[in-house]
Amino acid sequence: MKGARQVDYENIIYEKERGRARIILNRPEKLNALTRALQRELNAAMWDADNDNEVHCIILKGAGRAFSAGYDISASGRGETYADTYRGRVAIDDDAWQMEAAQRDRMAIFDMHKPVIAQIHGYCLAGGTDVALLCDMIIAADDTQIGFPPVRAMGAPPAHMWTYHVGPQWAKRMLLTGDSISGKEAERIGLVLQSVPRDDLEATVEALADRMAMIDPHLLSANKRMCNLALEMMGARTAQRLAAEIDARAHQAPAVKEFGQISREQGHKAALEWRDTKFGDGRGVAARRT
């Protein structure tokens, strides 16, 4: 983009212009599936933008057809191997430790002082929601698919902002079924701030960033911090750490072990079909259609 300053990363694109930083998840061939390496870069880029006096706000979005389809759970997606002296995932405490380590990278979005707008389109599933729901505002394309299908047979979200966005009943509706809803339906229940036609998404987000670019960034920081401190007083930050532990506990469920066995013996695609086929198209409905 003309006038943008770009910093080189392997898994994201960082741009800066007109009082905003754009951080773009950049694994389009994998629907921006999240690896640990990508999450570390996301953490570094967020703190870089937070430390930049020229940046008033951050726009977080995804390249290609999706914001993010979730965590990359393939062997190559992990991108790391662990020697025997390092924690694996055999014991429940090791599992929780790994969940917390990845969570610390994502929590930069919540902890940083400057506001972050999530611009979501295509798929915002599983780990994609762990990232997007930490942002200060979410603007979605109407046809975005939002949900956490892995709760059906793989564990629980290792982050939990669901209840704070939509209350306990809708949080349970989403997390006890793994169903997905559209961006338009997500707006109706308060999971996103606004849903717009796909062609209007970028202009809508940029217009919001334009308005914040006219505000002193120190005032933006003060008001974001107050809102997030209020969330912390309601337990939001502690809930994130508990979510990592609950996910480790959920990994002990028989269904998770069965999913893993099918994946090892028949392949990941077969395991996903076993997990999801019985749910049909997997779409929930947030409001009665007329």
Q: Got a strand count?
A: 10
Major sheet: arrangement of strands: 1-2-3-4-5-7-10
Shape: globular
CATH homologous superfamily grouping: 2-enoyl-CoA Hydratase, Chain A, domain 1
Rg, rounded, reads 19 Å
Largest sheet: 7 strands, mixed
CATH top level?
Alpha Beta
Question: CATH fold name, please?
Answer: 2-enoyl-CoA Hydratase, Chain A, domain 1
List the helices and strands in order: EEEHEHHHEEHEEHEHEHHHHH
Number of domains: 1
Quickly give the CATH architecture.
Alpha-Beta Complex
Number of helices: 12
Mean pLDDT: 91
Unreliable segments of 5+ consecutive residues = 75-86
The portion of residues forming beta strands comes to 5-15%
- How far the N terminus sits from the C terminus, by CA atoms, comes to 42 Å
Helix content: 40-55%
Give a structural overview.
The protein is of the alpha/beta class. It is built from twelve helices and ten strands. A seven-stranded mixed sheet has the order 1-2-3-4-5-7-10, with helices on both faces. It has a three-stranded mixed sheet with strand order 6-8-9. The chain is globular, with a radius of gyration of 19 Å. It starts with a strand and ends in a 14-residue tail after the last helix. The model is unreliable at 75-86 (pLDDT under 50).
Question: How is this structure best summarized?
Answer:
With 290 residues, this protein is of the alpha/beta class. The chain has helices at residues 36-50, 75-78, 92-106, 108-111, 127-132, 162-175, 183-189, 201-212, 217-233, 236-250, 254-266, 268-276, and strands spanning 5-7, 12-17, 20-25, 57-62, 116-120, 123-125, 137-141, 145-147, 180-182, 194-196.
